[in-house]
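S1.2 Input.
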Amino acid sequence: MFKRKNRVRGLLRFTLLGLFIGGFTGVSLVSELVVATNPPVKVPLGLSFVSTNGLQTRFQQWGAPTAHSLVLIHGAFESSDTWGPVAKLLGASVHVEAYDLKGYGYTSHLGPYTTEALAQQLYAYLSARKLSHPILVGHSLGAGVIARFVLDHPHVAAGIVFLDGDGLQLTYPGKFVMDLIPSLYLSALYQTGIHSGFLLRTIFGAACGPYCHPLSNQALVAIQRPFEVAGAEDALLAYAQHPIVGVTLPQLKKLRSIRIPSEIIFGSNDSAFSARAADQTAARIGAPSPIIIRGAGHLSMWSNPVQVANAIERFITGLD
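S1.3 Output.
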């Protein structure tokens, strides 16, 4: 009887081991198939680029030259295309430019992807485009880029606007779990995610807020395509190995002593931040009371472009 029990246990172990090996092999084969059937796509023709410290930085511009130039810096998982609705409105009265942060959009996918490196890219971009004393507007992660830039170059920007962002770095939950997932599986998850229209629409809708219009097929392609070019996957995974771009709290508070004109704009339904984040951020950098856009989520420039554009225009008028 004792030998029979041992034999049963042994067979169970072998069965479980076989199932594990079979499952592992099957998932690996599927992962390889997913990766192999989704080769990189080409960068679209007709885009504008400028050289910034060895990078080819893609940019867009709207409106004729004016006294104040407006430079828009996008957030995580975005590109300069995200600014389209707001930029077109602002371009009627001020010169507007937006560019793709390195590792995002169609800019060169060349690390490092640290806060300092992104601030250096911004400085190189302003120099290459000969933009003197611009107004900088940063969405989400872009606010962190601006915060670092102003600390490094306190007398360059004429004013700063934090849109749906507090400028602080953040280590996100689950970051360390990614280190335990084999690279092949990460690649398969990446490829599956960016090619799932349903998943992207769901994520976008949750971030955008309750009054956001569903993504059209054209807008969906505009979001997907930058993540399909060569190097995009490696860049995104490299971003994931570090805290979310931003500065520390003591560094953020130093902006107050620089006394740069500033404005904070947040959506009232921003799920990425607490209800107090806007007031706290304004107090930390010495900005006036924040502007709250009712009903907007974390992508207020997409769901409420008119309100965002009006708020930025009033800020520019105050500078004049």
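S1.4 Remarks. Residues 1-37 form one domain.
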